[in-house]
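#struct-pred

JT: dropping the chains for the assembly here, can someone run the whole complex?
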Amino acid sequence: MTVPMTFSPEVAAAQAAGAPIVALESTIITHGMPWPQNVETARAVEAEVRAAGAVPATIAVIAGRLHIGLTDGELDTLGQARQVAKLSRADMAACIATGGTGATTVAATMIAARLAGIAVFATGGIGGVHRGAESTFDISADLQELAQTPVTVVAAGAKAILDLPKTYEVLETLGVPVIVFGQDSLPAFWSATSDLPAPLRMDSAAEIAAAHVMRGAMGLPGGQLVANPIGAAHEIPAAQLAPYIAQALAEAQAGGIAAKAVTPFLLDRLFVLTEGRSLTANIALVRGNARLAAGIAAALAGGAAPVGGAAAAGGAK
Ligand code: PSU
Ligand code: MN
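RK: done, full complex below.
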């Protein structure tokens, strides 16, 4: 019994050549952004990956097959479809087994990337611990996935609609490395900084690739979260965003929005409340994440070696 998989010609050629590949998710297309910006963004993100010297592999389940890399037509169809399933670890196998179609979340895209032998994945922001989780128990499956599937995920941190301190506490408990790129505080998705300190900091793609390889060498399961801050020119400062997030959360509660519908509802309300600024920022940050992910994938394809200490210790005596 094998998993029915379809590789796009571009991804198949990259795999044959050992070229760097970056996985991309599809829930951001179907549930994270409105049409037509969703499809435009997906194309722009793929272009960023190519411009940085890697091959993009956008992942989705279409008619019972796990697609690794989508054609232009498939991307268009997915972007315009309504009522597409949002697939996470719990529902992916059932969808494939029954011939269904669905978009993959961070968790599901990590599972697909591992099956396809892809080590690096770029998205906007991971799911995490929702505010009020002490009563709803709503914690994204993305966190557990990072703890068990060996893929390095480049995001602008967890989405700021979440309870960020609790999200990072859970990641620490699960043993997931959270590596902030180039600064000492965690980014907060639409905002470049937060008042939470960076658990780990790295300033180059090569270091991140070396850390990924070292986890594998040590037999540690799970991946890494790379928290890449949005460019300062595109950010919405956290203080400006806070009242809109509070309003969107209040509306979600009043409307009885629960489970898988919560994140898409909040993102859509923020888009309206910020008059589109949240979407502009989201597009900018995911493009930046794609560029960094391509650099990490290139470092891995080039045979990432330990940076600094380990090499020096081995060679100096
Ligand atoms: N990044 C974005 N927009 C999104 C997502 C990520 O910029 O919509 C999606 C991812 O697929 C992530 C999901 O896994 O949001 C989180 O959903 P939940 O909170 O229901 O686990
Ligand atoms: Mn949830």
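JT: nice. The chain has one domain: 5-301. The CA atoms of residues 271 and 278 lie 5 Å apart.
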